[in-house]
Amino acid sequence: MGSKKTFKMVENTFPTGYTNNIVMATISSFAQEQQEDLAQKKAKELNLPYLDMKTATLNIEALRVMPEVRARQAHALVFDKKTREFSIASPRPDSPEVQDLVKEIKKFGTVHIYVVSEQGFEQFLQNYQFIPATREAIVGSVTIGDKYVQTCSDQQDIKTFLESHFTSEFDTSEMLVWILAYGLASNASDLHIEPTPNAVTLRYRIDGVLYPIANLPKNLENKIIDRVKLLSKINLNIKNIPQDGRFSIRRGAYEMEMRVSTIPGPDGENIVMRFLNPNTIGLGLEELGLREYDKKIIEQELKKPNGLILAVGPTGSGKTTTLYACLKKVSTKENKAITLEDPIEYKLSGVEQTQINAKEGYTFASGLRAILRQDPDIIYVGEIRDQETAEIAMHASLTGHLVFSTLHTNDASGTIPRLLDFKIKPEIIASALNLIIAQRLVRKLCQECAQEIPFEKPLKTVIANILKTQAPYIENLDTLVQTQTIKQARGCDACGNKGYKGRIGVFELIHVNDTMQECIHASPDELKIKDLSRSQGTISLMADALIKVLQGLTDIAEVEKAVGPVE
């Protein structure tokens, strides 16, 4: 009755002879205005901002936060996202479904809620069809509810708890859910499934350290391994050669990819799964552990339109995280950033990513040549492995591109001799190179249980002597070395009795200024580079690590493990 009445009312306002199509178009427009009015009214009642579809901007990549099915069920979707910040649009923001969704997303950052009309929401949903398929399709997925993760977090004896689920009474899929849930609960980066003659050991890498957590009965080995291989699109029948695959974990509104690698062993197939948690690379420069002095140097170099910035250190030292933070800082809608990776692990919003394929001849060198034909402003090369890649990267940085890459050297001063080993001319290195960032990762002390111990005089003397040589460039050095206590790890429920929780970087920077350029022209050895850089403000990896000890962020044991003996 309502629609007929509206039709009649509107029809009567038109002169005789107007078609029903025109009348209906007017009714449709009138109905749309009514919906927008209702949405504005609801926004005012709930004290929330109103979002008008006609003027709103939608970030297509933000739609990846949750699948379309979930968005339709909850009557809400994420239309924009930044680092740890999410914007949600919904016509029913006060519904239980939306409130549950907000709780889930708040675990990963700040949430802003906007009210849209029903028709506006439907228009937003149409954009799911435009999500680019930039990654290889994932054939398998595992859904893990929060109850699994929370239950694992609450366990005093995780070994006994997990092993109680490893019986024939439990479904294989359920067993795998519990195995993965502990990885999520502990923020593990990797899960190792390692067959032995009598059992299968589960080890988790947490903050860089492998911990044996539980054992699977030998009779369940094939079931679990086959389940992982099936999810990962790995051939079940091939057991004598290495294979690689991927699957995804769905947790509430979020999806995390798992990279899987198998390798044959004497007691069965070894499997390593990497948790590709996007929050791992969601850090900004201010969250890496950089001293203010070093952070300002990096920010200064990121403002330059061209040049080469290198992150150096061993595998697992956090180089990629640091360069991703730099990429996110410089990538805007006004420039084009392209990466060349091996493999692509994390999706970067607003950045075009490509992956090498050595078997097909798509190497870092050939890929870099191809990228230069794509009119980029910013280039990220996963690693400089050979002379050819080094030469092309140098050329790119000299022809108006800002280039980021990594190199395996022990410290910052060893970088230039390493580039000279690639037969790069010193004058090219001097002109192309802007900044070298050497780094390591140390575990952070759990602040719930870190134990204060006396800062004994012999250790204080050693540390003071190390820092004294770099004193002009260390803020508040006198105050730091006068401290009477330092901290060491102890262990509590909050950190799983490990004594540590999370990791932080220690850094050594070499800024290639005019004086350093002159030095490079003479093909200097590592010692000359080190002496000159120290005189210009570089503090060593060891010094930065010891500063973090004096600040109570880490302990001597971690410094010696990551950087070397304190002597």
From TrEMBL:
<dbReference type="Pfam" id="PF00437">
    <property type="entry name" value="T2SSE"/>
</dbReference>
<dbReference type="GO" id="GO:0005524">
    <property type="term" value="F:ATP binding"/>
</dbReference>
<dbReference type="InterPro" id="IPR027417">
    <property type="entry name" value="P-loop_NTPase"/>
</dbReference>
<feature type="domain" description="AAA+ ATPase">
    <location>
        <begin position="305"/>
        <end position="434"/>
    </location>
</feature>
<dbReference type="InterPro" id="IPR037257">
    <property type="entry name" value="T2SS_E_N_sf"/>
</dbReference>
<dbReference type="GO" id="GO:0005886">
    <property type="term" value="C:plasma membrane"/>
</dbReference>
<dbReference type="Pfam" id="PF05157">
    <property type="entry name" value="MshEN"/>
</dbReference>
<dbReference type="InterPro" id="IPR007831">
    <property type="entry name" value="T2SS_GspE_N"/>
</dbReference>
<keyword id="KW-0067">ATP-binding</keyword>
<comment type="similarity">
    <text>Belongs to the GSP E family.</text>
</comment>
<dbReference type="InterPro" id="IPR003593">
    <property type="entry name" value="AAA+_ATPase"/>
</dbReference>
<dbReference type="GO" id="GO:0016887">
    <property type="term" value="F:ATP hydrolysis activity"/>
</dbReference>
<protein>
    <recommendedName>
        <fullName>AAA+ ATPase domain-containing protein</fullName>
    </recommendedName>
</protein>
<dbReference type="InterPro" id="IPR001482">
    <property type="entry name" value="T2SS/T4SS_dom"/>
</dbReference>
<keyword id="KW-0547">Nucleotide-binding</keyword>
